[in-house]
Specification:
seven-stranded mixed beta sheet; alpha/beta
């Protein structure tokens, strides 16, 4: 697969170029079994950054328009990316994510649903929480600091693991999916604030 070739050939050069500084609970990047990595989304290169800093192979969702051509479909599927329709409730993509997690794979998603224009966290969509609830997979929140220029060092803050149980314990007044959604939003915001203090 192209992903394996990419990691094998480019991980070390890109690591040296990005010089990632990983803070917080960085041990969570090595979690075994099915796990959901959630991250804020500011730049087109964010998936590449996650692939570089994380020792796990990460499967991503991407907008289905990228798969409209045969070449695009082959290219992105070889990078372990599968399509999702952002305009409708895409049940097929949700089922794909759940199957991956049940097989012990790592799944990456940007819960804001799109790239943000500021460092603030936009509204969090409920799809990530639904996938976590259905699969039972833990969630690892990650905050990427937006680089000031292309040669800036990549700074990363990794948060504590979120589970449906832990989120529901904090917000027993909410339904599980809503509690997890709120936990993701809160964690990403806190990680962002902590990052900006450094």
């Amino acid at each position: 697969m192209l992903y394996i070739i990419f990691i094998s050939l480019l991980k070390i050069p890109l690591w040296l170029l990005m010089r990632p500084k990983i803070c917080g609970h960085k041990e969570n990047l090595r979690m075994k079994g099915g796990v959901i990595f959630v991250c804020n989304h500011r730049a087109l290169m964010d998936p590449v950054k996650l692939a570089i800093i994380c020792p796990r192979i990460i499967h991503f969702m991407a907008k289905k328009e990228l798969f409209d051509t045969k070449l695009g479909s082959i290219f992105f599927k070889s990078l372990f990316v599968f399509p999702v329709s952002r305009k409708t409730a895409d049940i097929k993509s949700v089922k794909n994510a759940i199957k991956l997690l049940e097989k012990g794979k790592a799944f990456g998603i940007y819960p804001e649903g799109k790239r943000a224009v500021t460092d603030n966290i936009d509204d969090i969509e409920k799809g990530t929480a639904f996938i976590a609830a259905k699969s039972g997979a833990p969630i690892v929140p990650i905050y990427l600091k937006e680089a000031k220029h292309r040669l800036s060092r990549v700074e990363v803050m990794v948060g504590e693991v979120i589970t449906v149980e832990s989120a529901s314990a904090v917000r027993p007044d909410m339904k599980p999916v809503e509690a997890v959604t709120e936990a993701i939003r809160s964690s990403l915001e806190e990680l962002g604030l902590e990052m900006r203090k450094k």
